[in-house]
Amino acid sequence: MRKLLVLIPILGLVAASCGGDSGAGSCAVVADDAVQLFQTTIDELDSMTLEELGAFGEEGPPAFADLETKGLELQERAEELNCDEAEMEELLNARIGDLTADGEFGQFMIDGLEGGGFFD
Question: What is the spatial distance between Cα 82 and Cα 24, in angstroms, rounded to a whole number?
């Protein structure tokens, strides 16, 4: 679980270093892709028991590494599109409500995002 707490700030990497102007549609697609990535991670967490999660040790389940890798790819896309940081923040925070969880691990991740947004 500690790895999850460490990775939640990575969610903000999607737009952490964006700057400049761009078309809203392209940045919106990056935000949509980011939310889909988060949902995939949540779904994988929700499919596991506490014992299964614990068996991965400090590294956590493969979904965490995938989240980090794909999150960095999304950040690069946003940078290439010159997405404005404020716009990305708004787009991402607006989509948090679209995330769903069936279990407490996924809900824990959503609660962290809702409580602090992506950039607190």
Answer: 11
